[in-house]
Amino acid sequence: MTQYLLSVYNDPDMLAEVGEDEWPRLFAQVEEFNENVRTAGAWVFAGGLHPQETATVVRTVDGKVVTSDGPYLKTKEYLGGFWIIEAPDLDAALTWARQATVACEGPVEVRPFQDEPAADEA
User: Fold this and answer.
1) What is the CA radius of gyration of the chain?
2) Measured distance CA(7)–CA(106) in Å, rounded
3) Tell me, what's the pLDDT at 89?
4) Does residue 92 contact residue 4 with C-beta atoms inside 8 Å?
5) What number is the average pLDDT over the span 92-112?
6) Count of beta carbons in the 10 Å neighbourhood of residue 37
7) What pLDDT sits at residue 74?
8) What's the distance, Cα to Cα, between the start and end of the chain in Å?
9) Who contacts 59 (Cβ-Cβ below 8 Å, separation ≥6)?
10) What pTM value is reported for the model?
11) What would you measure as the largest C-alpha separation in the chain, in angstroms?
């Protein structure tokens, strides 16, 4: 089976509109989705990320390794969390993504992982 990354993108404006009393409902929806993925045997790993302000970027500039605070890309939306699932094909992964976007009430990007060569082929 192929592994897929389901990335959840957060919009700070949308998050600001979520009332404090709505967070338990959102967390419950996501946990229900998580349990459905586990039960179906598609679960590999998932995680939520701290806000983009907590990011540190490490890059090479003129041959030197440099670190900087904050996200690499200056965009409104940012990666807020993800799932790694196993699915037989893109259609099955998209079915999970449709359920994920309903659960977390945010956009979900679906991308397959590249196939890695077997250890004896490398």
Assistant:
1) 17
2) 10
3) 97
4) no
5) 96
6) 20
7) 65
8) 21
9) 65, 66, 68, 72
10) 0.84
11) 54
